[in-house]
């Protein structure tokens, strides 16, 4: 009887000890997000992996890494099924209502990835922008000026200067030629007015034409620039009416909704979105700049994609901590702050081609 009692006590003690160990072992969720979390087979590396391992070692934290999908990870963090998420989570007011954030360790902007246009597409786009309504209006005015002053020049010169301006219907063409040559300041000298009224017409044409040509050139250049900017994919708002993609439940998704983007496709991962972009299923993919650049540089299948020099919606990255384990947030935050102030942190960022903004 005594031995049985001792066995029961030992069993209860063992269960209690095991439960204590289990409770102290943090469940750490993650999903791949290069260059922050890079997974090749069973090998895990990346900026966040290094930062978490260093933090856990300094604080003597026991943990178990749990691979998950991004949406699943956020839901599990919210419900307390996992204790920590070491993904580069953007700090937002909505998320801070359902779980805790550590101190931010990195800041980056969102940006836009598009499929590179072919040479033919670039040429047709330029021609479309060039032959716009403003250009055609200017061309029509130019032709009218040439015709009107050519007609005046012929009228004043046809009788006293028939060798240059024939006194017939063909002489009108002589006037057109003289007017065009004078207006464009080419000045061949093959035709020139001799009469007083002809010379006055020439003076008005030369000085008025100089001003008109200058204004027309500036107007065409301005119009071409405006049309390029308005139709160019290098502006954030230019994609408002187009089909774009981003990651589900991400800070970028929230930002696009706030700015009234109408056609947004949500993806569970960056690669899936970039492949749809490559296949022409979406016009642009918008997400965090370092992640997009790393994916495109590392994946040969995505070489025809480019990241535009557009930055919007600065993102502050932090680890997420369940409210059920809020007691560790302060220690983890303090340790992250200490690590990110070291030279070693800058070296790690440089290894993956990043730097603090």
TrEMBL record:
Pfam families the UniProt entry points to: Ion_trans_2, SBP_bac_3
SMART domains assigned: PBPb (SM00062)
UniProt keyword list: Membrane, Signal, Transmembrane, Transmembrane helix
Residue spans crossing the bilayer: 135-156, 200-221
InterPro entries named in the record: Ionotropic_Glu_rcpt, K_chnl_dom, Solute-binding_3/MltF_N
Keyword Transmembrane in annotation: yes
Residue ranges annotated for the Solute-binding protein family 3/N-terminal domain, each copy included: 25-355
Residues annotated as signal peptide: 1-19
Presence of the UniProt keyword Translocase in the record: no
Organism annotation: Maribacter algarum (ex Zhang et al. 2020)
Name by which UniProt lists this protein: Transporter substrate-binding domain-containing protein
